[in-house]
Amino acid sequence: METPNRTTTEAGHVNHPHTRQAFGRVKKFVAAYGALSVAVLIVVVILSVRGREVTAFMWGRTARRIPHVTLTPSVLPTG
């Protein structure tokens, strides 16, 4: 019995309607996560400007979310 040669890239599964729908949902969730991350960052900035205590953890936690949101859509297929 021979093993099929699967060295070529097949785009058939990526173009399937269910797959496209799933990627669309992921993109929407990433956008919502991004909006929430920006809102949290704005709250931290407002707290800092008003003189409230803002810890390094708060800055790090909010600033770390932004790269995740900007990089995730670039790895998802477009279409």
What would you note in describing this structure?
With 79 residues, the protein is mostly helical. It has a domain at 23-73. The chain has two helices and no strands. The chain has helices spanning 17-49, 56-75. Helix 1 runs antiparallel to helix 2. The two termini are 38 Å apart. The model has no long low-confidence stretch (mean pLDDT 78).
In short:
The chain is mainly α and 79 residues long.
User: Mean pLDDT, as a whole number?
Assistant: 78
Strand content: under 5%
Q: Say how many strands there are.
A: 0
Order of helices and strands: HH
Q: Major β-sheet, in short?
A: none
| Shape call | elongated
* Helix/strand class: mainly alpha
Nearest-angstrom radius of gyration?
Answer: 20 Å
List unreliable stretches of 5+ residues: none
Helix content: 55-70%
The quaternary state of the protein chains shown equals single chain
- Termini Cα gap: 38 Å
The number of helical segments is 2
Helices and strands in order:
Elements (H helix, E strand, L loop, with lengths): L16 H33 L6 H20 L4
Helix pairs in contact: 1-2
Which short descriptors sum up this protein?
mainly alpha; single chain
